[in-house]
Glycosyl transferase
Amino acid sequence: MMDMRTDRVPRIRHILWKSDRVSAYFTKQLKSWTDIHPGWTYVLWRDADLDRFVAKHYTGALQKFRSLKENIMRVDMARYLILHHFGGVYADLDYTLVHSLDPFLKYTAVVPIETEAFALLYFGMSTWPPDLLGNPAFMFSVPQHPFFFFCILQLMANPATDVFTFAGPLGLSAMLKRYATDRPAVSDLSDVVFVPVSRAFSSYANNSLRSSTSEYKGGIMDALNRQCDAVRKSTVSPPELKSYCKDVYNLDPITDRRELAFAIHDSNKARSSYDKRGSPQFYKDSVSIRTVVPNVRMAREII
């Protein structure tokens, strides 16, 4: 039978983790991917692989990469380089896949956004809708996409020393805006970045932030409530924000739960989980990733 697929994004998932051992906690998330996409290629990038990869393929970015003070910032930068070089899908290890990603493979680049609540948190509640807050935890690309090359150049020049404004959500948001400004008219649609609705890759159980653990959400919810204090007192705030600020946990006034969620990002964690300062469940009872994903490829084999 003739294959009628029009995929552009390669069917590769890049997984970045500290070693080739993953905790039992992650086995369910990993299995959700292999159940839905058994024929995909899964590539594991250990911390030790990243410097070798950058040194071999992106020598111009190596000094910047090595100068970053926090390991998580190097990991964040590496995902843009990997997607530019190989293409495919980058997704944080703690994403559970719930629907096939096939509908997105026809695009040349896909950059999801965070939930509107987090966009309001970082950009303020003066207007509705809020600016888009990029979600670098889940991205798609064809090899050599100009947006990801643009991101590499931006990151090399970015003096930021904190995770969020370097290659994290705020940094990604700034790069999306600059890319749209610098390339307002594209002659080739392959240069375009597709941005799906927030719920597609930033969904929460029952459309509520109550599904998060108190450790992860405490400061975030306090900050949202502080911003909502002004909205509650205002006579001119948009009705969507008035409704949302009645209960900042409930996303229904600002996020349409009818939109399909393709993947769910684990919210039962501490924000420092990658560097072992939080979320101990991420490190307990570790097993070789090959016991969960038998056909996994090690990045060191393809660098």
Remarks:
- The CA atoms of residues 232 and 242 lie 6 Å apart.
- The chain has a mean pLDDT of 91.
- The two ends are 35 Å apart (CA to CA).
